[in-house]
């Protein structure tokens, strides 16, 4: 297996000083990847960019200028619907999509493997940021012989325009589920997770059964472009936040010009486990007044009690600011490990009490105001 993965980092090229077109550069990451034969993003995007520039005079194309303009997206009709698409494809009649690419996105020292998987849905399974796809792995359900496997849900990690900005793909961020024998502590390959391993092992051109899209809890409220969005993710729980942040900071969405604050707390094991870190770091550079990004590296950093640094410990560090933002109407989102919620609730309860507030009442109020969004698994 090759040691390097091509990690896409879109840059924006300004043409005529105002209209950006997408172009990608590929950054080498010291990780392994699955070879693929799909036309590379770089050659595809280069074709788009060069045909565009042939048609129009280019006055300026410098990296300096390229930092702020956003990426053009299409079709803009994806903005027209008033309600999110829901359950367009059901378990009995899934849509058959095609794998475009499977890329390992963690470094060699990450415990476990996480892959970024782009699926071509041909524009037939539209979705909004924060929704999930269902995937039905191939084969027979061992518990119900003669029946297909059960559907598994995956949060979509791209915006509705997909990673090619054309509304035809959806990306998933999938961690291989592995089973460790409690007695030996060793991995038991005979019990590995069915769907996550199917997805991470798939190759470009493979077919994949898609249901959905589903979910309304994690939709990004867009009524107020000045709103504050506090996002708390562990591991692959970062997926919906990648979609939100691309919509806020990367894409030129005519009907959503974000001018509020997005604050991402991401909990992962170590530096090699960071997900989409280049992308998020770029927003910090480009939009320092609108984006904050705090990472909790559980196996590299210590909390103030000497224990593992979890996202809830980071939240505690900033609790005063977070409480003020919530009082001002901020939305707060949690996505990822189910196990983080008790720790988060304990932390928030402790902070509330130290401020002379009752957490149960505050939580009820946040839920009533639709500020509290949780999707854990
Ligand atoms: P399964 O085959 O379902 O196995 C489940 C677990 O049991 C695995 O850990 C496996 O190791 C273990 N196991 C298997 N056989 C045995 C056995 N005989 N004895 C003991 N243990 C065993 N996941 C992501 O990676 N990314 C996402 O973005 C994501 N989003 C989600 C969103 C939602 C709303 C939900 C509900 C879940 C999401 N998930 C996500 C989780 C995902 O749906 C799957 O649950 C996950 O990928 C595991 O599925 P699997 O088929 O690989 O494992
Ligand atoms: P750790 O694995 O060091 O205990 P994963 O990679 O398994 O999806 O996990 C993502 C991150 O969430 C890891 O840093 C993991 O830490 C951390 N984590 C595990 N349990 C909890 C928990 N109860 N609360 C918060 N974070 C957690």
From TrEMBL:
Organism: Castilleja foliolosa
Domain FAD-binding FR-type: 92-220
GO biological process: photosynthesis
Catalytic activity: 2 reduced [2Fe-2S]-[ferredoxin] + NADP(+) + H(+) = 2 oxidized [2Fe-2S]-[ferredoxin] + NADPH
The protein, known as: Ferredoxin--NADP reductase, chloroplastic
Keywords of the record: Chloroplast, Electron transport, FAD, Flavoprotein, NADP, Oxidoreductase, Photosynthesis, Plastid, Transit peptide, Transport
GO cellular component entries: chloroplast
Major location (coarse): plastid
EC number: 1.18.1.2
GO MF, one annotated term: poly(U) RNA binding
Family: Belongs to the ferredoxin--NADP reductase type 1 family.
Cofactor(s) of this protein: FAD
Enzymatic class: oxidoreductase
Ligand binding (NADP(+)): 155, 175, 236, 298-299, 308, 336-337, 375
Location within or outside the cell: Plastid, Chloroplast
Listed InterPro entries: FAD-bd_FR_type (IPR017927), Flavoprot_Pyr_Nucl_cyt_Rdtase (IPR001709), FNR (IPR015701), FNR_nucleotide-bd (IPR039261), FNR_plant_Cyanobacteria (IPR035442), OxRdtase_FAD/NAD-bd (IPR001433), Riboflavin_synthase-like_b-brl (IPR017938)
């Amino acid at each position: 297996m090759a040691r390097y993965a091509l990690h896409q980092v879109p840059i924006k090229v300004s043409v005529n000083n105002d209209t950006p077109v997408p172009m990608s550069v590929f950054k080498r990451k010291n990780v392994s990847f699955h070879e693929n034969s799909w036309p590379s993003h770089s050659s595809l995007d280069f074709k788009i960019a060069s045909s565009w520039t042939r048609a129009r005079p280019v006055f300026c194309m410098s990296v300096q200028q390229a930092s702020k303009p956003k990426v053009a997206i299409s079709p803009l009709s994806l903005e027209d619907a008033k309600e999110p698409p829901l359950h367009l494809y059901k378990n009995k009649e899934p849509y058959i999509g095609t794998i475009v690419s499977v890329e390992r996105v963690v470094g060699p020292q990450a415990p476990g493997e996480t892959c970024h998987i782009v699926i071509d849905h041909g524009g037939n399974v539209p979705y909004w940021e924060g929704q999930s796809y269902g995937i039905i792995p191939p084969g027979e359900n061992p518990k119900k012989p003669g029946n297909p496997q059960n559907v598994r849900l995956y949060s979509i990690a791209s915006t509705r325009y997909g990673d090619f900005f054309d509304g035809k793909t959806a990306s998933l961020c999938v961690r291989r589920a592995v089973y460790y024998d409690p007695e030996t502590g060793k991995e038991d390959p005979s019990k590995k997770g069915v769907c996550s391993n199917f997805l991470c092992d798939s190759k470009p051109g493979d077919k994949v059964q898609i249901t959905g899209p589903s979910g309304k809890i994690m939709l990004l409220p867009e009524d107020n472009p000045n709103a504050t969005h506090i996002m708390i993710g562990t591991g692959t729980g970062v997926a919906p936040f990648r979609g939100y942040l691309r919509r806020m900071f990367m894409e030129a969405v005519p009907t959503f010009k974000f001018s509020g604050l997005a604050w991402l707390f991401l909990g992962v094991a170590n530096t090699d486990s960071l997900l989409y870190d280049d992308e998020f770091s770029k927003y910090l550079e480009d939009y320092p007044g609108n984006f904050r990004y705090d990472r909790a590296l559980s196996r590299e950093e210590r909390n103030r009690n000497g224990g593992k640094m979890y996202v809830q410990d980071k939240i505690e560090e900033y609790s005063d600011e977070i409480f003020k933002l919530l009082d001002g109407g901020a939305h707060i989102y949690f996505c990822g490990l189910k196990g983080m919620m008790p720790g988060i609730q304990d932390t928030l309860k402790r902070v509330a009490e130290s401020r002379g507030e009752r957490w149960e009442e505050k939580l009820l109020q946040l839920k009533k105001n639709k500020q509290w969004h949780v999707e854990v698994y």
